[in-house]
Amino acid sequence: MALSFCGSDNHIKAYSVNDGVLNNGCFVDALNLVPHVFLLFITFPILFIVLFIYWVLAFITKSIKLWKFAEFTVGIRQLRFCITALLVILYGLLMAVEINVIRVRKYVFFANPQKVKPPEDLQDLGVRFLQPFVNLLSKATYWWMNPLIMGAHKRPIELKKIGKLPIAMRALTNYLRLKDAYEDQRTAENPDQAPSIWRSMYRAFGRPILLSSTFRYLADLLGFAGPLCISGIVKSLGSENRTSTYFGVHFMSSTELLQNSSVLAVLLFLALVLQRTFLQASYYVTIETGINLRGALLAMIYNKILRLSTSNMSMGEMTLGQINNLVAIETNQLMWFLFLCPNLWAMPVQVVMGVILLYYLLGSSALVGASVIVLLAPVQYLIATKLADTQKITLEHSTDRLKKTTEILKGIKLLKLYAWENIFCDSVEETRGKELTSLKTFAFYTSLSIFMNAAIPIAAVLATFVMHHFVNETGPSSSEAFAALALFHILVTPLFLLSTVVRFAVKALVSVQKLGEFLQSDEIGDDSWRNGDMSMCFEAVKKHMGATKAINRKQPMRYQMDNYEQPTRRQMRPTETEDVAVKVTNGCFTWGSNLSTLSDINIRIPTGQLTMIVGQVGCGKSSLLLAMLGEMQAMDGKVFWSNKNRYSVAYAAQKSWLLNATVEENITFGSPFNKQRYKAVIDACSLQPDIDLLPFGDQTEIGERDDPFSALDIHLSDHLMQEGILKFLQDDKRTVVLVTHKLQYLIHADWIIAMKDGSVLREGTLKDIQIHDIELYDHWKTLMNRQDHELEKDIQQDSQTTLERKTLRRAFYSREAKNQIDDEDEEEEEEEEEDDNLSTTTIRRSKIPWKVCWCYLSSGGFFMVFLMVSSKLLKHSVIVAIDYWLAVWTSSKTNQSDETVMNSSSETHIPPTLESLTRATLLCLSAIGVISSITPLFLIALLPLAVAFYFIQKYFRVASKDLQDLDDSTQLPLLCHFSETAEGLTTIRAFRHEARFKQRMLELTDTNNTAYLFLSAANRWLEVRTDYLGAVIVLTAAGASIWSSLTSSGLVGLGLTYALTVTNYLNWVVRNLADLEVQMAAVKKVNSFLSTESENYEGSMDTSQVPESWPHDGEIKIQDLCVRYDAMLKPVLKHVNAYIEPGQKVGICGRTGSGKSSLSLAFFNMVDIFEGKIIIDGIDICKLPLQTLRSRLSIILQDPVLFSGSIRFNLDPEKTCTDDRLWEALEIAQLKNMVKALPGGLDAVVTEGGENFSVGQRQLFCLARAFVRKSSILIMDEATASIDMATENILQKVVMTAFADRTVVTIAHRVSSILDAEQVLVFSSGILVECDSGPNLLTQEESLFSVLHRVHTILTADLVIVMKRGNILEYDKPETLLEQEDGMFASFVRADM
């Protein structure tokens, strides 16, 4: 009886045991079956014991077999020897692993075995990223991602669905690892030496990079198997196999096995599977490590920001833009460099192996081709360098364009009112032109690079074949030519990638340099004073906190000082024995330069009292607060904090700062929510009316620049002072420090600090100053007792707030309407009737936006679309024709045009994505067509493969889009958190909330990293499956070629070569489809924006018909004017008729929502004038082109807006004025001396938003800007809200003088500004109810203007007595009586208001 593993009956020796049983091959084979008996006990309770016995016996039996093979001279040339040797190694490794498990777990021979617990992460049900915990097969194929990706087709992926990251991948873990590696480099001998970031990165993340490199080595080595296997298949067609016999057993040699075409086909399949598996594993490890590095760097940068010296920000050494670049660009550059790191040491291996194999195949002639590649490599590198330089220039132009566009959007109202749109648009278009030029240059070099990448292997092959023909007098064989061509393509790939890697390496070097400089920048100092001595010396920058309410609000309030009496509820003057909250002795502070900003500061802040700091613009009031908080650098002096005050400080900066969070979160600011206290704060700040307007109340998310909350409204000054500061804070014995330039507050101050030119002018109570500094007191009294200095009425104050609330409401209405229109458009595109069932959802989410894509393509012109499609088809047709001709001539050609798609596909722009998509698609279609034409049997297997590919791409695209959206949506809050932290740094440090903000940053970073990791895992999921699908296509094509008995070996090689092409490009078809689908969303938004209706700048009159001197007189006729903000809204002005004489000074006032601000906008045709007209100097403004109208009028807005550039540019962007005129305007605005002191004078730098000037100075620049234009009509809309009273008084006189012969229309938010007006227009509910001079209207007791003025007079009184029939009913301060809603005084005021 014949036994398959022993031989046959013809060889009796096979059964002989005369020489010993171990010398009998049959017995040795049977012996190797013994260990498998133990597998019958696989259900044994203690499984590891069975496995241990199995591995030991298997290792022993296989070792005996290998020993006997060697004894009978069976070597590595025989297949069975090689297989047995591999099994010995495998069983030995498995046995060693099992022994180690027993040792670690203390099993078998140990008395107390360790209990196996699942990893801590798996005990947390919130951890959904399971890649580190699943088995090896699931790791390799990402099988654990199946539920998520397939589930996305039914329901969108949300944040809660992807859960949390494992502990080892969280930002805090990696930050601590990187920080330890960074700090360990500091030595006691040289503590100031900057640690190396490169060394820190290597120590913290070097191991996973080495693991990834190992995977990459294996993948690259297996990559050579493809061309060699196909060459072997071509060569083996028609050859015969032979076997050898040793001690009666038939053996096949390894060489004979590798010459079998069927075996080679299987080996090719296995090599492709393993190669792609290792390659994807390498990609995953590098991406995971890169993400971990990015999270650690973000945490390190954030911690540095929280310790950053304030002078760095204020002096411009470290701008918000630089910090944003560090966060958004530099960390990503390092992450991408880490992604490409394995290529640095994998590329040399590819090159060396490729050259060795070429020399083995073709001999010395192959070196000629390699030399061609080496010689042409510098050309490719030069092109890559040009690409990098061009890309850098393009990025600079793009950043400049975005900056200018952002400034335009922020100041769009001012630009429109001043008719400066064209100036700023021209600037943006000029920058865009430079950007487009750079983009065209970049496209040229990109095309040249792709051409060189395709041409270099062709030139190398041509040189090699020619040299081979001369040396050997014959051309290479088909298998040699095919293998050589494939290997040359493999050689070109690393050389092409070299330029990319070098480019990213250079960027990484620059990023590390910037990061190092940032980490070494000045810090605020330590917090040791908080825990120890209450005195601190400011030899270095220190950080201070205290139990002090530091309020920096500049709000108007009118109080009379004639009858001032010091309150007796508590002592005002702190003595030496009294408790002092803060004390500064001999202080001298600076913002980082050698010049002191504050000098000779000796002040004390009494505990539990209200201290006010006053002074003119630029005297150092705000700087004094920051000096006490430790934000300024101290040149000399000491600051003392009391023990009970230093641990609790609240700080409200002059410039509003809000978080991207809900209203409630902005108010509570991390404090525990107390409903009663929360409501009291809302009432004290009068926020409830604004909250009621929001769509979700106080749960509405607002932004850091949200208009309704951008600044404290003027109308809240009285309410905030009475309810917020005097009642809510002072009654609770809080220490309050209020910085203000409104002297009317002083009546409430317990302690006053007057400042001038960076020094303390006077300190004490108001009574002290009245006694000891009569001149200063009289100066204050003069300012406060001006004839026109009465308390503005609440109703006028409310009008501005109401306008803002109306604007907010309109914004919400328009937003809702827009959303509704967008939803309708989307429904029309997707489904006419949308149901909530699963099938409709599936169709909608898996639909590719071909319509939007066509809109994008057609925007470039139909000819360009035709040219692009035609050139692509022609290119691939020529490629197929050449390949077919080469297959007939030399029998094969492989991997024609094997371009590296990853480089172009890494770009997020649409053109590279489209180019990559079309190239990959046409290559795959060409390959399938060639294979099918050569071996029609392939068509049978094509159908199931196509079905599999369809479902893979269908599931992936939906999941990828969701994960991409999650990545984008989680990245924005992270970047905003960095930005808002840098802007609110002083507030965060004052509140001592650094730890809370750090925790928030870590949460946002982990959330973004989770989405990014899942997106990366989804990409690996796709690529593994498409790679395996491509391997199946190669196996199918090889099998069909072998079994179809093709006589042309060249055609077989051609078919298999194209099958390999499918493997390379199949996944990129899906990836690019998914990317294109995401990018088309941006096209859709742009298209929607372009379809938005814009203003009609063209008028019925031509510009030439308007006199150049118009308006020359300033005469204004308003005839039956009706105005609305939108056709869907009600009119805000109804049938208004008025006449304003040339040069007249006119005031406009009215009740809440009366329409006075709408009238100011109507002068500039900014609102819809749907009936009536405004005639200025005989011309109807509606007939004028908007540019002409707005360029001839002047307006001063309440909010100061400055643009980055120079002072000259901000005053005269049209460049039409002389320097003398500009200096004259600055002198009028009280800015001449300050500007002269600046470096460059008129050309001095203005930073973004004018941040290098105070708010008051910015408003003065805006006043100067209006003076420069010198129009005959000036509109003033609360233009002096941000400047001190002394400056305001001067400016009021200046305006009256500079515009004495011009028409001035003042939108009155203060009655004092229009009491002497030659004409006052009083509005009520959009109707003009009164029109006369101010004095005349006051004489009419029943007039609305008179009623409003009487209310003002009463509200400014120190005491109100309400009588009825000789009896005193009410007696108290007006603000106290107003709180009694049921009182008679309150009812009187409400009736008049």
From TrEMBL:
Signal peptide: none annotated. Its main location: membrane. GO terms for cellular component: plasma membrane; protein-containing complex. GO terms for biological process: potassium ion transport. InterPro entries: AAA+_ATPase, ABC1_TM_dom, ABC1_TM_sf, ABC_transporter-like_ATP-bd, ABC_transporter-like_CS, ABC_transporter_C-like, ABCC8/9, P-loop_NTPase. Keywords: ATP-binding, Glycoprotein, Membrane, Nucleotide-binding, Receptor, Repeat, Transmembrane, Transmembrane helix, Transport. Belongs to the ABC transporter superfamily. ABCC family. Conjugate transporter (TC 3.A.1.208) subfamily. This is ATP-binding cassette, sub-family C (CFTR/MRP), member 9. It comes from Sphaeramia orbicularis (orbiculate cardinalfish).
